[in-house]
Amino acid sequence: MHKRIRPADEEMGGIWYTLGFVVLWYSGLLSAVRLRGVSMELSIFLIAGLLPLVMAVQSIRKALFYRRKRKEAIQYGNASRGKIVGVMRQTVPYETSRHGTRYRKYYYLNVEVYDTLTGQGREIRSQGYTKPIHRYLRTPNVTVYIDQSGWNYYLEDFEWKTSRKEPDILPFREEFDESGGLSILIKVIFAFLLVMMLLNVFFSQGR
Question: Transmembrane ranges (predicted)?
Answer without folding.
Answer: 12-30, 42-60, 182-203
